[in-house]
Design brief:
This protein is α/β, with parallel strands linked by helices and 295 residues long. It is 55% helix and 10% strand. The N and C termini lie far apart (45 Å). The N terminus is likely disordered. Bound molecules: zinc ion.
């Protein structure tokens, strides 16, 4: 498909985001997710996120030749999001050929728009606050949030912005993999497990790969580690927000931007211990009580 064939997108502009989508249905769905993410971001970070642009695409072909300049010129962070259920015809064909997919189709959308919007809002927030807080030169960068905020905290903010139905699944993961919980000492400094795939340190088994997509499977242990990492980010932050108040999450973000580490930040907490073992014990106790009704 050449760019000229891309249908004119529908758009919606609000104070917090600009949204572009290929259909009315997708526009409405995305609007709900973005509004939800804005609400949650404000609740935990203590302020509204800076405005971002979200563009929904059916596939990567549509993205080619897209004029992103009009947004980057305005220094707006742009979130490109592929509509998950718009599984490309070619991909459907492939998935049909794979018995495992036929038997157990992966209907779960683990990285919905609300999650990705959470990341993007945080990125914009970090860019806006960086110079002021770090007293360093202003940088408009994709990586400030990734450089100065630990991987777990990035995922914490993203998972806090998710719809409750998905968060419920993350609690179910915690219950199922209670024995696989990553000790906080390790968790706080862990490089994002998914980064290992990007850096090819952990080779996935490729089932099929073409121009638009790659299907791969990871070994079970690694899959579990990734699921636990996300679930832990969410549940630990829920715990902190309950004990210290939701605004503590915003305080953490600002302290990370100032260059403080987790030890220094936890020492500013009023209710929880800054001793990792004690903190872990309290969190696990709290988690246990939350998991009794989780299926
Ligand atoms: Zn994420």
């Amino acid at each position: 498909m050449c760019p000229s064939e891309v249908k004119e997108q529908l758009s919606l502009k609000t104070k917090r985001f600009e949204l572009y989508a290929p259909s009315k249905k997708e526009l409405k769905k995305a609007k709900e997710e973005l509004e939800y993410a804005v609400k949650k971001f404000k609740f935990y970070l203590g302020e509204y996120p800076p405005k971002i642009v979200t563009i929904l695409f059916n596939n990567s072909e549509e993205m080619k030749g897209y004029d992103f300049n009009r947004f980057t010129k305005r220094k707006l962070q742009v979130l490109n999001f592929f509509i998950p259920n718009a599984l490309r015809a070619a991909d459907m064909e492939i998935s049909r050929k794979i018995p495992a997919w036929k038997k157990k189709p992966d209907k779960k959308n683990r990285h919905p728009l609300s999650h990705e919007a959470g990341h993007m809002f945080l990125r914009a927030y970090c860019n806006n606050n960086f110079a002021k807080l770090s007293r360093r030169k202003q940088r408009q960068s994709r990586s400030i949030s990734k450089l100065l905020l630990p991987a777990w905290f990035n995922e914490a903010v993203a998972t806090l912005c998710e719809f409750p139905s998905l968060q419920k699944e993350r609690y179910a993961v915690m219950k199922k993999y209670m024995k696989e919980i990553i000790p906080l000492r390790k968790f706080f400094t862990l490089v994002h497990p998914a980064a290992k795939i990007m850096k090819k340190k952990r080779k996935p088994k490729i089932i099929h790969s073409n121009k638009t997509s790659t299907f791969f499977v990871l070994d079970k242990a690694f899959n579990t580690l990734i699921s636990v990492f996300y679930a832990q980010a969410l549940t630990f932050t829920h715990f902190l927000a309950e004990k210290e108040g939701p605004k503590f999450i915003g305080k953490m973000a600002k302290e990370f931007l100032k260059g403080k580490n987790i030890n220094e930040i936890l020492r500013q907490a009023e209710s929880v211990s800054s001793n990792f073992s004690k903190l872990e014990a309290t969190w696990l106790k709290w988690l246990g009580s939350r998991l009794t009704n989780v299926e």
